[in-house]
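Sequence only, no structure available. Ideas?
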Amino acid sequence: GCYILRPWAFAMWEKIQATLDADIKAMGVEGCYFPMFVSEKALLSEKDHIAGFSPEVAWVTRAGNSDLAEPIAIRPTSETVMYPAFGKWIRSHRDLPLKLNQWCNVVRWEFKNPTPFLRTREFLWQEGHTAHAT
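Reply:
I predicted one. Tokens follow.
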């Protein structure tokens, strides 16, 4: 359900990423990174948004030999982590627009037809998120 990118394949990903990243940054979008682990509470706070992802969410329930007190999701997408932070960072119209881009990996526990660069259980991902006054 997962793939390995050999150096030549990863070089293609790096070229795609570099080309797109230059265009994204030229629009005034800044790079960022948010955690890949999401608390169950945070994920459920966006239950309408993640409804389509729910069957595909991978959960961490153990650390070493111990059960976790609360399961932790591996991000299927980042809105549930990003948007609460946006709410803390944006205090007035002067904080806008907020334009962020994240290059990361996501996990969706689905498996239909694995296609490198397109879809497997873990895949490389680019996601842009913005907040504007209007």
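Residues 7-26 form the longest helix (20 residues).
Hope that gets you unstuck.
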